[in-house]
Amino acid sequence: MSNVVGGRAVLVLLAFLAGWSMLARFSLPSGAQEMGGPLPGEGRSGEDLYRAACSSCHGLDGRGIPQHIVGFDVPLPDFTDCSFATREPDEDWAAVAHEGGPTRGFSQLMPSFGGAMTDEQVDLTLGHIRTLCEDRSWPRGELNFPRAMFTEKAYPEDEAVYTIGVTTEAPVRIFNELIYEKRFGAQNQFEIVVPFMFFDQEAAADGSGPTGWTGGLGDLALGVKRALFHSFSGGSIFALTGEIILPTGNSDRGFGKGTFVFEPFLSFGQDFGPGGFLQVQAGAELPFDPDKAEMEGFWRAVYGHTFTQGRFGRAWSPMVEVLGASEFEEDAAISWDIVPQFQVTLNTRQHVMANLAVRIPLEPDNDRPVEVLAYLLWDWFDGGFFEGW
Ligand code: HEC
């Protein structure tokens, strides 16, 4: 069984890579007004360009001209605010500067400069805007790699995620999870995880016990993450997270472990040139009551690549994840899974995303079913769920 599954996994993986690398290129229409002819003055610095092209709205200091002076009521971003500015990758800002606000679901009052400035001039101007946040302790948004289904990222996030997983063999189990993550300070994040599940109960071998569907809350988790190291030029980020899992799920009915569990883990992300990224997570589950649950170590890795439709369009990120876990015991079996998946941005703002995945157990003679999973992710700091479609 496992060889067949392993072969299938490799095929799925190859199909993914072939399919997505051939993605057709489309370009998105832009409703923004265009700025006129080329800007005069070759060889001007980013600051000069900013003064000439952007400061009439964004202000010389980058905080935005007050609304009563600028004459419109769309609030202007504050480029000196590191909490806002650092999380936006250059790519997103370049898209807005080239194509105008609507290309990321913003107001058309943000004009398009694609006709007035060369790519180099846009980059120089954005380079100047980057100097307006002076605090280097905020990790750059470029290090916020696409979220894998299982491997936790190192980047501290403001996001909400709903995940559903369904087993493909009877008895069917439907696992749901709501995650809310909130940043605090430059490098930290708080998170709360609320799992709930539904099982199709099977009677015991002798026909006794309950049957039919049942459901309930699982074990709630609270966690704190801190990015210990991040380097924009090196393309890497490294974080430590501590989670406390509370025994809120009914353990007799299989919804929880029945004991508090401490789960520390490390996570690491590495940029691999245009589009490619690797993320790794390793940690342990340490139950307070060793009679109720086993101590377990786990490690996860994901490699992926982001492709965009056209120059600034929808982002597709096929990824392959490998999961390993084992109890801390001599001769304990290691469970392995491979999880091919892809994430796609759903709206124009690109702050609502979905991921579709298949989790395939790999170790020999396992009796774990294949599971199909999906998540819906909302980067809530970037705007309301229904904004920017
Ligand atoms: C005519 C006024 C105006 C000019 C000139 C202007 N902008 Fe804007 N810009 C705006 C407005 C308004 C917004 C906010 C749009 C919104 O939030 O819907 C904005 C937003 C932006 C954003 C998006 C920030 C985010 O939220 O992610 C970027 C980046 C940006 N401008 C860059 C520039 C650059 C670079 C220049 C000069 C080359 C420039 N702008 C010139 C009005 C202007």
Report on the architecture of this protein.
This protein folds into two domains: 2-24 and 142-202 and 209-382, Beta Barrel (Porin); 46-130, Orthogonal Bundle (Cytochrome Bc1 Complex, Chain D, domain 2), CATH 1.10.760. 16% of the residues lie in helices and 36% in strands. It contains seven helices and 14 strands. It has helices at 2-21, 46-53, 55-58, 67-70, 82-85, 90-99, 119-130, and strands spanning 159-167, 173-184, 188-201, 212-217, 221-231, 236-245, 261-272, 276-287, 296-305, 307-308, 315-327, 334-345, 352-361, 371-378. Strands 1-2-3-5-6-7-8-9-11-12-13-14 form a twelve-stranded antiparallel beta barrel. Helix 2 (46-53) crosses helix 7 (119-130) and helix 6 (90-99) packs across helix 7. It starts with a helix and ends in an 11-residue tail after the last strand. 31% of the residues are buried. Residues 1-6 and 8-31 have low confidence and may be disordered. Residues 53-54, 56-58, 74, 76-77, 88, 93, 96-97, 101, 106-107, 109-111, 113, 125 line the site of heme C (HEC). The site of heme C (HEC) has 20 residues, from helix 3 and helix 6.
